[in-house]
Amino acid sequence: MKRRSIFIAVFLGFICLVCVLLIQYIWIKKTIDVQKTEVLLHQREDSLSTVRFIQKVHFSLGNVLTEISLATNDSSDRYGAIRQVHPNLFYVEYQGDVDPIYLENTLKREFYKIQITNDFQYSLYNCFKDSVKYSYLFKFTLDSLYENTNIMLDYPTIQREGKSHYFSVYFPTFIKHKINKTEDIGSPWVFLILVSVLILFYLTYSVVIIVRQKKLSDIKTDFINNMTHELKTPIATIGLSSNTLMNDDFSKDPERLKKYASIIFRENKRLEGQVERVLNIAKMNKNSTPLKKTFFDVHDFIMEAKETFDFNLEELEGNLTLKLEANRHCIYADIVHVKNVIYNLLDNALKYKNEDRNLSLTIKTRNDKKYLIIDISDNGVGISKENMKYIFDKFYRVPTGNVHDVKGFGLGLYYVKTIIEQHKGIVRIKSEKDVGTTFSIYLPLKRDENLD
Ligand code: ADP
């Protein structure tokens, strides 16, 4: 998958996400608007039914009062005798003495006539002490109409100034419903945010996976290209030489015959070596390499390495400087592997030299409390920050497009890191593109720190 395709896929995914969220947003907003209108209608209906209820109660209590006046021959002014002290509590003042049961029955009849089907508590007061004389809660049932429950509910007390007889009617179940659904309406937004976060998380996760897969596929393609490139040359040489051996007459020139045979032998060995090396390192993992540890002096083999590399550097007009500053330079390690590590790093310095300047290589040794540190610095092509993260990965090579002017399989630094970590050491890298690179190898000084 090309970078452009990944970008397009991510971009399309993002657009889809935005569209889905937009649709959700519009949908939720519409629903909320509809609900708000419904709530308003409900509230209006509620207040209308409240007004109607209050009117009905006033009307029936008026009738009750008229009846009491007739029964007690009271002809006084009844204006202001019915008062509503709470939305569901009314009291009625009257003159004369009335039997509580008679009053109760009158109330029931009047309420039933006008279809007040709410439960109510009727209480008759002693007007001198303002205390309740008689009080019962009546439940509206379809069979017995208003059934006496023999219960007495508490309700707000009545503040009053006059000294006339009075009774109260309290409707406990009639509560003004304040439907405030707008408060519940917040939840769709929480849901929308949650879904958005989930989708975003999923999208990011998918992008990470795609990018990782792309990197792996690039590494695989690079490896196959390199492998083909590396193997093709010896195979072609062997092919050409054996063809010559088959077709030419060597009876008069045995030296030529020997030359071609040795070419085949040498190229075959090279092929074998390469396959072996790739297979061995590819098979290798963190703890699998058996180490044969001995005490040895690192300075000694660094000086040996200088001799070998000086020869190569002469051709390249480069130089290798040694700064052997470590006081403690004997370590307990596998000499073959540590040598391979150092040679790998020196080889890389040669391979990745900057073509615009002569190679300048430095090997420096130093100590800190726990380690012998070997710094190998070059002034080569350097490595950019983004590639530096991956260079110790198996098969990773810094991408160079399709140009394979430098041979390799991306296994050298993987080998370096694996071996050093097996010795309980550390590998560090400092590099700047077009300036140069320094690899620092930290090897433990104490024997017990790198014991297997
Ligand atoms: P190989 O050399 O076979 O490609 P390595 O594992 O040795 O594999 O190196 C991985 C990558 O790190 C190389 O492809 C190269 O781009 C980069 N690299 C390693 N050493 C150096 C160096 N001294 N200077 C610049 N780049 C380097």
Return the string of H and E elements.
Answer: HEEHEEEEHHEHEEHEEHHEE
Strand sequence of the main sheet, in spatial order? 1-2-6-3-4-5
The SS-based structural class is alpha+beta
Q: Which cofactor or ligand species appear?
A: adenosine-5'-diphosphate
Short description:
By secondary structure, the chain is of the alpha+beta class. Helix content is 50%, strand content 19%.
Task: Tell me what the structure shows.
The protein has a 6-stranded antiparallel sheet with strand order 1-2-6-3-4-5, covered by helices on one side. The chain has a 5-stranded mixed sheet with strand order 8-10-11-13-12, covered by helices on one side. It has 452 residues and is an alpha+beta fold. The radius of gyration is 50 Å and the shape is rod-shaped. The chain is built from 8 helices and 13 strands. It has helices at 3-72, 100-113, 187-247, 254-283, 298-316, 335-351, 385-388, 412-422, and strands at residues 82-86, 89-94, 120-126, 131-141, 145-148, 165-170, 293-297, 319-324, 330-334, 360-367, 371-378, 426-432, 436-444. Helices cover 50% and strands 19% of the residues. Adenosine-5'-diphosphate (ADP) binds at residues 348-349, 351-352, 378, 380-383, 391, 396-398, 408-414, 437.
